[in-house]
Specification:
The chain is α/β, with parallel strands linked by helices. Helix content is 46%, strand content 13%. It has one domain: Rossmann fold (3-Layer(aba) Sandwich). A six-stranded mixed β-sheet has the order 3-2-1-4-6-5, with helices on both faces. Helix 1 crosses helix 2 and helix 6 packs across helix 8. It is globular, with a radius of gyration of 18 Å.
Length: 243
């Protein structure tokens, strides 16, 4: 817990993600990434002056969030579930052949609206180190551009600031922590789960890493040194090691 909290705390400081008095909402899907983020930020409240809430966008796919609700109560974190029909709209009515982009856009819109209605303008998302590297490769291979999401994204038209405090944390560390803490991870019921372009890139990066063990660390470091827009850290960044 202390090691993971240290990585998150350093990322928060390097990119000035959370300021004293901030109200922060965590977008909780029920997956391991968002639950680990919620647990770590709950611990960081002891060292920083900010409040925390959790918000879930129910996609209408029949997922049970009662375990997440119990988890939030144990951490003394207010929890809101927003019911939607995003899943049926995309898969049953529109029958989208490439549903991921539209799904992500609709979920983001619903999540941003939900936190604004609660008087919150800062949204924490559970993207980690591996997500950043994979997104970089997705942009390069599928779109022909050098790009990635930003550690801090200001959505001026919405009045929302998105932060990604787990960018220094490897996916393997997230997995191990979720298992050791027995977090209430919910099975993903998305019909295209494990069949997306991101999964193809994940497999590609995994295979390349067998030949080039430092591949992910080098790509991540390159994003900060170029730097990509908003990726240059303000603190003394030390490359996280895969453990």
């Amino acid at each position: 817990m202390q090691k993971l909290m240290g990585l998150v705390r350093r990322c928060v400081e390097d990119y000035q993600m959370i300021n004293p008095g901030d109200k922060v909402a965590v977008g909780v899907s029920g997956g391991k990434d968002s639950l680990v983020l919620l647990r770590v930020l709950a611990g960081l409240r002891e060292y920083a002056d900010f409040s925390l809430e959790a918000v879930t966008i129910d996609m209408g796919l029949g997922m049970d969030f009662s375990g997440v609700a119990d988890f939030c109560r144990s951490l003394d974190i207010p929890y809101t579930v927003v019911p939607t029909q995003i899943g049926p709209i995309i898969f049953d009515h529109r029958k989208e052949k490439n549903p991921c982009s539209m799904c992500a856009k609709m979920r983001r819109g619903a999540l941003n609206q939900a936190i604004l209605e609660r008087g919150i303008s800062k949204l924490a998302l559970g993207h980690h180190f591996d997500d950043a590297v994979e997104t970089f490769f997705m942009s390069l291979i599928y779109e022909g551009r050098i790009s990635c999401f930003q550690p801090v994204t200001d959505l001026d038209r919405m009045g929302v600031t998105q932060i990604r405090p787990m960018l220094y944390v490897h996916e393997k560390t997230v997995d191990n922590f979720a298992q050791r803490m027995e977090l209430p991870v919910i099975e993903n019921r998305c019909p295209v789960d494990k069949q997306t372009k991101r999964e193809e890139i994940k497999e590609l990066v995994y295979n390349l890493s067998a030949t080039y063990p430092d591949l992910k660390e080098r790509v991540f470091g390159a994003m900060q040194r170029l730097p990509l827009p908003q990726w240059e850290p303000m603190g003394r960044y030390k490359r996280p090691k895969d453990e």
